[in-house]
Amino acid sequence: MSSLSRELVFLILQFLDEEKFKETVHKLEQESGFFFNMKYFEDQVQGGEWEEVERYLSGFTKVDDNRYSMKIFFEIRKQKYLEALDKQDRAKAVDILVKDLKVFSSFNEELYKEITQLLTLENFRENEQLSKYGDTKSARNIMLLELKKLIEANPLFRDKLAFPSLKASRLRTLINQSLNWQHQLCKNPRPNPDIKTLFIDHTCGPPNGARAPPPANNTLVGGLPKGGAFPPLGTHSPFQPTAAPSASTLAGWMANPNPPAQHAPVATGPAALSAPPNSAALLKRPRTPPGSIPTVDYQTADSEHLMKRARAGVQPDEINYAGPSHPQTASSADDLPKAVARTLNQGSCVMSMDFHPVQQSVLLVGTNVGDIGIWEVALRDRLANRTFKVWDISAASMPMQAALMKDPAVSVNRTVWSPDGTLLGVAFSKHIVHIYTYNGGSDLRQHLEIDAHVGGVNDLAFSHPNKQLCVITCGDDKTIKVWDAATGRKQYTFEGHEAPVYSVCPHHKESIQFIFSTAIDGKIKAWLYDLLGSRVDYDAPGHWCTTMAYSADGTRLFSCGTSKDGESYLVEWNESEGAIKRTYSGFRKRSSGVVQFDTTRNHFLAAGDEFLIKFWDMDNINLLTTIDAEGGLPASPRLRFNKEGSLLAVTASDNGIKILANRDGLQLLRAFETTRSFDTNQVAPEPAVSKVGSCLSTICSNACLWLILIPTMQSGIEGNRTVDTKPRMPDDVIERTKTWKLTEIIDSSQCRSIRLPDTLPLNKVSRLIYTNAGVALLALATNAVHKLWKWQRSDRNPTGKATASFAPQLWQPPSGILMTNDISETNVEEAVPCIALSKNDSYVMSASGGKVSLFNMMTFKVMTTFMPPPPAATFLAFHPQDNNIIAIGMEDSTIQIYNVRVDEVKSKLKGHQKRITGLAFSNALNVLVSSGADAQLCVWGTDGWEKRKSKFVQVQPGRVASSPVGDTRVQFHNDQFRLLVVHESQLAIYDAAKLERLRHWVPRDSFSASISNATYSCDSQLVYAGFVDGSVGVFDAESLRPRCRLSPSVHIPQGVSNSTVYPLVIAAHPVEPNQFALGLSDGGVQVLEPLESEGKWGVGPPSDNGTPTGVPSGPTSGNQGSDQTPR
């Protein structure tokens, strides 16, 4: 449906609402799917009108559309089911269970079973998780709050929750205007027209006198000025006739694609652009349109073209009535992203930024030392980073090799995403363009290396001429070049500039594709893809560095530039006339650098100047507002909006980036942080790639093509250019590097620490995991007994989350039974315990050398047992997409893929030489990684369970030549690509796709003992490691550099020898990134957190650029479902 047809639906909705057709209004809302009336939805939920609730929802989403939709329908049907149980209507409850809730069983069979078990209870509140269920009204209100959050986060409801801002009775107004115009076209209009129907066009009968205006009191026609003139056609209609375009104007050369290539010199004047030569004829154009113009109701491709011309066209001078004003949908300064929501540290000066066109919070960054980085700003997580290097030096041209030999320093001039976000381009200050493919997360791969220009490549853009994706570049060699984005083959070279080309701006009007280019001599040229030379030759205000950019809808053209004297200009162009339409005020007289700008929402402009961010309304030349982003901005900060205009990235003076957000932006960031928590405790997520990119694509709306350019300075420009050399490390940073010391915590008073109360016999803690909800800790001791500690909600702990500030309760069911594994015919001392927890925390699977047992976490009862030894199970991991599939590592070195539902081993994987000690699934790569006591890593494809790669843990220099032996654990980073490998001899980070080691750390200095266990923090920013001497280390996960050391005295009771007690296992809280728990060899369990005044575990040593390693990040919920939380 076209945009005008969509707007017509809104007008009809407004009309129906004003006329009190309430049922019809909501029926149209539901059938059109354009506007979700939250107030109506709330009323239906609070009234328990469940059929209407689901019917209304069906116009916007279905159960299986995405994880948000699934949870919305689940919560509604669960509430309906509980209400039936509360009324003791078992028959209705069974009907709801079978007809409405059965659909969710395929996603989470265990949850469905648990819901079914409620039928067996006299009162479903006997279930601990439902013990606080109140009355029906309060339960509905609580559920409604959850539903509103889910709806607001659901991408299918984006742009459907707010009704457009319309004047009252807008549809009647449009009808009045149409009748006015029809009356204007009457050959002999009557002074009092008799309008009786809207079904046919209005005409007046033969008159007896001269033409006269309709009276102002006609209720259908509406008020008109006394002068009698009717509104000109261009005021209210997109169907204004246009004169034949001149080849010397922008409209002309687009309509006449082959004019002479040469152009006469441009006359000087304030606008620096010539007026169309036929402007006199345009002004004398007759007021009444020809009768041949057809009547068109809604916008077509042709009428859209005419409408664009009408916006910029000149109205006849004899018309003295401009008609009533109808401004665009109201926007205010409150819509601008002004709140500092995130601060990132790239480590070097940022030269260019671009938000991903689909994943709204993924930011691409390029720096003055040639680095590029990809950030997930919601989590402050740097997903990928690449330093500059020539991929194939043998293919490089001699001028390029000579330039790099003379001065190897390289800067990024431009970074930009392709329209669909699958490619990204990087333009460097020396010759080269790099094109990468991007598949989300950290999956950034080399695609093309192009030796593009002699000298610097100053700008880069993507475009689709002839429906083929191309890369457009410009450079110091005064040329613009077009390259095939798939092959790198050069397609066009445009020559004609007399100075280095500073920027390019590709665009299209209907089927006409063209490129604007600007050079440092201030010349603007335009090119078609035909090698016939430039079509226009104008002077830009300032006559120096200028960039051009269209508004997001492609209808308005702007440019921003700075002169050599530091005077900055921000202007809008009238394309039809080839002249400046308006010049915006508000710049200081002398800018210290080239001012950068961007546009958003088809309504606002933003530029960085005077250590501020300045905003303008596109329709007002005066400054709208300014912000300083809490200070710390450079003189001319670079800036970039995301597609929706809800986030604004701004460079900071300390090599940082500030992310500013408006209300929608804050909601976007919160939605991403909470996305992972929505799928844990009720309904399992839909089978989908779970890497960071996919989470975001769920939150964000569909892509649209952005061709907004960010000016970047280039080599070869004297004056304000940033020097293309590596920055010198400041003296104070060098001093900090020299004086930095590892944070040492030697006493429990220096952190928050609590030893969990225990009334049961103490045995070594062999396995330890948090529940996925983060409210309890589950330990498995060497005597095969499980212990469960739960934190209770209270005024001091309102969330009920695990904390070191309050003691939990060692929980047991009313029956008093213990959750104990099968150990018949098992030597407990030699057994290798293993444990895994279901996503909803309802079931735990465990073994201690005997059969594998499945326990109910509420009753501690054994649901079933399977896999009797030999061989015994040594490691367990639930499949992330199907809780019925379990990977079981065995003592005989095999891995069995077991289906619990059908009690059948689906596959048996062989590749290790000793028992299995670790398993971790990756949704992003569709692989299972295994580790063994043979210190070998194996990668298995989860589609056919074939072995893809294997590699032994690498031996460190100076050690024995053979492979190390001993238990090896594996755990995926949140990005699902990087893999933490833990061995007693080292910590290592691997690229799981290639099984290549990226970095490693070996015990030394303050950490000289062997490693006993290690795990990622829940946000994958830290690594917690335990050592056999009793100490604990906190490491930066990116660099594996130690940040903090906890002495054994912090968590080992007084009077106990440190040499005999040490952490056997370590577990990270699933929500709080700075909380972890230790399972000790003396049977104790300790929870530790930093002091509230500190907020984190120490500070990492300064990196090479002088900034502390590790950036604090918001928590994400990880899957704590198996030993050591493999992700």
Automatic annotation (TrEMBL):
Location of region: Disordered: 1091-1127
Entry protein name: CTLH domain-containing protein
Compositional bias (Polar residues): 1104-1127
Pfam families referenced in this protein's UniProt entry, alphabetically: LisH_TPL, TPR1-like_2nd, WD40, zf_topless
Residue ranges constituting the CTLH domain according to the UniProt record: 34-92
Keywords for the protein's UniProt record, in alphabetical order: Repeat, WD repeat
Source organism phylogeny: Eukaryota, Viridiplantae, Streptophyta, Embryophyta, Bryophyta
Organism name: Sphagnum jensenii
Domain of life: Eukaryota
WD repeats: 450-493, 909-940
